[in-house]
């Protein structure tokens, strides 16, 4: 019964997440390498932030097989909280990258790359599988 209560609580966290729940610094690491860094803050009731991604290599299953560290953070140009998920947009050269962030618990989340049709074509053309969601942890900086 305790496991069922815990699962129900986690489900409610995802549905009822507020802007404040997303605020903070979120990272994904492989060994000592931070390959995703997401910084979010709430000011005057609005969420703003920056995202940095290192070069990530994935295996045939979309799992991270190798990663380089984050070098710089790019300002997010779109943040939209809907249905317990935060949708993020950031410029990437001439392109725009889209992501979805889901809170899994107090200090855990996952970041999912939401590719466009053109992105999917590029990935497939290069034999690169779609990456699985990156598991993030909230850290104190």
Question: What does this entry look like structurally?
Answer:
- With 141 residues, this protein is α+β, with helices and mostly antiparallel strands.
- It has a single domain (2-139), classed as Lipocalin (Beta Barrel).
- 20% of the residues lie in helices and 50% in strands.
- The chain is built from three helices and eleven strands, in the order ααββββββββββαβ.
- The strands form two sheets. It has a nine-stranded antiparallel β-sheet with strand order 6-3-2-1-11-10-9-8-7.
- The radius of gyration is 16 Å and the shape is globular.
Write a short abstract of this structure.
This protein is an alpha+beta fold and 141 residues long.
Question: What is the fold's blueprint, element by element?
Answer:
Elements: H1 2-16, H2 19-22, E1 24-30, E2 33-43, E3 46-53, E4 56-58, E5 64-67, E6 74-75, E7 78-82, E8 85-92, E9 95-105, E10 108-113, H3 117-125, E11 134-139
Antiparallel strand pairs: 1-2, 1-11, 2-3, 3-6, 4-5, 7-8, 8-9, 9-10, 10-11
């Amino acid at each position: 019964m305790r496991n069922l209560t815990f699962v129900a609580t986690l489900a409610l966290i995802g549905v009822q997440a507020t802007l404040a729940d997303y605020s903070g610094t979120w990272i994904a690491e492989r060994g000592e390498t931070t390959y995703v860094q997401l910084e979010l803050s709430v000011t005057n009731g609005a969420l703003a932030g920056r995202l940095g991604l290192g070069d990530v290599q994935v295996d045939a299953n979309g799992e991270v097989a190798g990663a380089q560290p984050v070098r710089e953070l790019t300002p997010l140009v779109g943040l939209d909280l809907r249905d317990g998920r935060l949708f993020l947009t950031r410029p990437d050269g001439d392109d725009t990258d889209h992501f979805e962030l889901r809170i899994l618990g107090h200090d855990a989340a996952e970041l999912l790359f939401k590719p466009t049709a053109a992105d999917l074509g590029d990935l497939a053309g290069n034999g690169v599988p779609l990456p699985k969601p990156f598991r993030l942890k909230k850290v104190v900086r």
